[in-house]
Specification:
The complex is a heterodimer. Helix content of chain A is 74%, strand content 4%. By secondary structure, chain A is mainly alpha-helical. Chain A is globular, with a radius of gyration of 21 Å. Chain B starts with a strand and ends in an 11-residue tail after the last helix. Helices cover 32% and strands 24% of the residues of chain B. In chain B, the strands form five sheets. A six-stranded mixed beta sheet of chain B has the order 5-8-9-3-10-11, with helices on both faces. In chain B, β12 and β13 form a beta hairpin. Classes of the chains: A mainly alpha, B alpha/beta. At the A-B interface, α9 and α10 of A face α1, α10, α11 and α13 of B.
């Protein structure tokens, strides 16, 4: 029974939330347009959370993703101001993400600072750099090329409802692409299985010939690049960039991975479960906003729901252990 | 005299009858050994004695009265104390504070009386002849042996009135070196001299033969026998534990096998405690590594693997220099079974197949990078059969396996890469006698197939029974290499401390 609650409790809770919104918001919630809208709203969080899963699989995490997202946005925008072409500016911003991620990896795996401390420090560094680069201002308006802002608003048309086209947002496609890539890396390559091995028992993995230091270093590149992609997506969506716009992503991403872990049988981080976690957060946010729940109250509710979900899962796990006979 | 009677106790878990009408009587002042393979019911019995579990049928009788079943506090108040193989100490606290973890600290007006605390600890230590342990020292500065002894001494601190009279020790030497074990045996002698009884649970036959006054054997949840030590012996105990005649524990060497070519050459190797170790290893040879704890047995294996930094010297594997970290060693045909299977060996919560495939993910991959799940499962099944692994399926998590089967998973992992050199660190520690026998046969058959084996062990019969040659380490130096044939335990042990007079076959 407790095993059953642990396995499917999260799923049932999710359906209950959707059911509640569907009844409370009969005209707007369960519509294709709203779900496409949700998919776009959560696309940035999806990218950050998916890549966060890569490091959390090893038992590490990366607190610097939010400020890296802000940094990559302002870097791209600043380069636009200096008349860089769109591809060149995007490539530069992604390169900064890659370098920042590898730097995190270096500090954590080679120097051996705890990820909490190391990425808390780089969080501050990246955030400070974002202010330095942007001079503390929001970069917007004519400085941002129209094509860049149009990307987030566009997307392939999938249906026509009356006069209005139903569009699959480009940002959603990017998020799907990133999730797919992370899924292949984690579930289908030996690289990914070695990361899981490091999470399972780091010393055992090392003695069994897994190059732990190199792998940990490289895995942080995923969070760096993922954060940079998310930062660019955000900048494109609002056609502007300011040095704090990515800040909310980090906690939400970690929460999504933990929510996802409550859904997997072995309690391990898995990228598809993370995606489910992101959807839960996105649906809650969307539904509560439509119900005009005050945004502060919304935060209290979302936090409480995360606590309940992870708490129920932990209790279920303990119950399972209690019943097992001694070895 | 005080006694605890276990009267026809039964306990069932699902389909498994863990205990089936087991009756035993434990008395003060004597050491009663309890033996049995993994799964025989020892752990369940201990849990019932500790009040952590209740019997389905039967009862406990303490000095003729029945204590409340399933109540740890009642068993404690009745004077039972439990010493487990795995030590849980509060790092960062002192010895004396650790000894007071389950006693109230001496206090005055809410303030800890530190002097009284340290004095109580010192008195308890002194009663067991452990005055060399400083109660004010940090607990982490003590080795696992001393930590266990302080745990025993802690039971002598009288705070709750009930003096302990029966100690239940569950594999107490599993994590101890032979010297630390010696100290424990001295303390056990001291405890019984002071009138306490001990229920001693162990896989280690020599310890049991040495310590026990009486020996009880469990098999498949049933009580097979209880005999005074004088009326039984090793062969009989093994027969009663396994239910079959085992023959020799160590399979015979293959007669007339010519020594193979040199596969591993170690020259002037320095690493950690190890100083300028040199030796050669031939295909099909089993080289035992012997010596007291800290002599560098394990360090030698880890340096060959590359897990510890090689500070000087050279390792040559079939003509090529072996440098770098463990990944290089594994891919060149060196395999390693670590000493601590839970902390250094297994990913406990992951599947058997994943644990076996881990070092071989590269060669197993499709198109270089992509997992081939089918090949991985097939490898796990094949290797599992090779080591006679008993498990539900390759997808089962390792934490559910017995110690012996966990060790077999590590052997399967090591064999899966068809190694040329196999490094084994305490390969049968905490493994029951049946599984141990199977591992010995496996090592023999590997050596017959030309695998060169280096086996570090603190188990002297195992070193003598399985090795072709035994390398003896003293203070990090490879002092001598002797032929195992005709060696006795006493002669081998003597060489741990000083060079033998003449009869050793010296080797480079």
């Amino acid at each position: 029974m407790s095993d059953w609650i642990r396995r499917f409790g999260g799923l049932i809770g999710m359906l209950a939330v959707i059911g509640f919104f569907a009844i409370s918001l009969p005209d707007t919630f369960l519509t294709a347009r709203n779900w496409l809208n949700i998919s776009q709203q959560i696309s940035m969080l999806t990218v950050v959370a998916a890549t966060m899963t890569v490091v959390m699989v090893m038992g590490d995490f990366d607190l610097s993703v939010g400020s890296m997202a802000s940094l990559s946005g302002v870097i791209a925008a600043t380069l636009f101001v200096q008349d860089w072409s769109i591809p060149a500016a995007l490539a530069a911003a992604l390169a900064v993400g890659l370098v920042g991620g590898l730097f995190n990896g270096l500090v954590v795996s080679v120097i051996g600072i705890l990820p909490f401390v190391a990425t808390l420090a780089t969080l501050t560094v990246f955030s400070g750099l974002a202010f330095v680069v942007s001079d503390g201002r929001t970069i917007f308006g004519r400085d941002i090329p129209a094509a860049f802002g149009d990307f987030a608003r566009g997307g392939p048309e999938i249906a026509r409802l009356g006069e209005r086209a139903l569009v699959l947002p480009n940002l959603t496609l990017v998020a799907v692409g990133v999730v797919l890539a992370v899924w292949v890396v984690l579930e289908q390559t030996s690289y990914g299985r070695r990361l899981y091995a490091i999470g399972g028992n780091r010393e055992a993995a090392r003695l069994a010939g897994v190059p732990v230091m190199t792998l940990r270093l490289s895995a942080f590149a995923f969070t760096g690049v993922g954060a940079a992609i998310a930062g660019l997506m955000y900048a494109s969506r609002v056609a502007s960039a300011n040095p704090t716009q990515g800040d909310g992503l980090m906690l939400a991403a970690i929460a999504a991975v933990f929510l996802g872990m409550t859904l997997t049988r072995d309690g391990q981080p898995r990228v598809l479960a993370t995606l489910a976690g992101v959807v839960v957060l996105g649906v809650l946010d969307n539904g509560l906003t439509q119900m005009r729940v005050d945004s502060y109250v919304r935060e209290v509710l979302v936090g409480a729901i995360i606590l309940v979900a992870v708490g129920v899962s932990a209790l279920g796990r303990r119950g399972v252990f209690r019943r097992s006979p001694s070895r | 005299m005080r006694s605890l009677e276990i009267d026809r106790v039964s306990r069932r878990f699902g389909a498994v009858q863990a205990l089936n009408a087991v009756s035993l009587t434990l008395r003060a002042g004597a050491v009663h050994a309890l033996m049995g393979e993994n799964g025989a019911g020892k752990s369940t019995l201990i849990r019932i004695l500790a009040g952590l579990d209740r019997p389905d049928e039967g009862r406990l009788q303490l000095d003729g009265a029945e204590p409340a079943a399933g109540a740890p506090a009642a068993m404690r108040a009745a004077g039972l104390r439990f010493i487990h193989q795995e030590l849980h100490v509060a790092h960062g606290l002192s010895v004396a504070e650790n000894m007071h973890l389950d006693h109230p600290y001496p206090q005055r007006a809410g303030f800890v009386k530190w002097r009284a605390l340290n004095r109580a600890a010192a008195e308890a230590l002194a009663r067991l002849g452990l005055s060399q342990i400083d109660p004010r020292a940090p607990i982490s500065s003590l080795g696992p042996g001393d930590q266990m002894l302080t745990r025993i001494a802690a039971t002598l601190i009288r705070a709750d009135g009930a003096a302990p009279w029966l100690y239940v020790m569950d594999e107490p030497t599993a994590a101890l070196t032979s010297e630390e074990s010696e100290q424990l045996f001295t303390v056990i002698g001291e405890l019984t001299r002071q009138g306490a009884g001990v229920l001693y649970v162990s896989h280690r036959m020599p310890e049991v033969l040495r310590l026990a006054d009486r020996v009880s054997v469990l098999r498949d949840g049933r009580h097979v026998s209880t005999r005074p030590l004088a009326e039984t012996d090793e062969a009989r105990i093994i027969e009663e534990m396994t239910g079959e005649r085992m023959g020799d524990l160590f399979p015979p060497r293959h007669a007339g096998q010519a020594p193979g070519e040199v596969v591993l050459r170690v020259e002037g190797l320095d690493a950690g405690p190890l100083r300028s170790a040199s030796f050669e290893l031939r295909a099909g040879e089993v080289l035992g590594l012997a010596g007291v704890a800290g002599s560098g047995r394990g360090a030698l294996l880890r340096a060959v693997l590359g897990a510890d930094t090689r500070e000087a010297g050279q390792v040559t594997l079939v003509g090529d220099a072996l440098t770098g970290e463990p990944p290089r060693a594994w891919s060149n045909g060196v395999a390693y079974v670590p000493r601590e299977r839970r902390s250094e060996g297994l990913m406990l919560r992951r599947a058997i197949s994943e644990n076996i495939a881990l070092p071989h993910l590269g060669p197993l991959a499709r198109a270089r990078y992509f997992l081939d799940h089918r090949r991985q499962r097939r490898l796990a099944t094949e290797m599992g059969a090779r080591v006679r692994l008993k498990a539900e399926s390759p997808a089962q998590a390792c934490e559910a396996l017995s110690g012996g089967n966990q060790q077999k998973v590590l052997f399967a992992r090591a064999l899966a890469g068809k190694p040329k050199v196999l490094l084994l660190d305490e390969p049968t520690r905490g493994v029951d006698i049946g599984a141990r026998h199977e591992l010995y046969r496996l090592i023999r058959s590997l050596s017959a197939d030309g695998v060169a084996v280096i086996m570090a062990s603190s188990d002297l019969p195992e070193l003598i029974g399985l090795s072709d040659r035994i390398a003896i380490l003293r203070d990090g130096r490879l002092a001598e290499i002797v032929a195992a044939e005709g060696m006795t335990e006493a002669a081998l042990l003597a060489r741990f401390y000083h060079a033998a007079e003449a009869d050793g076959e010296r080797a480079a």
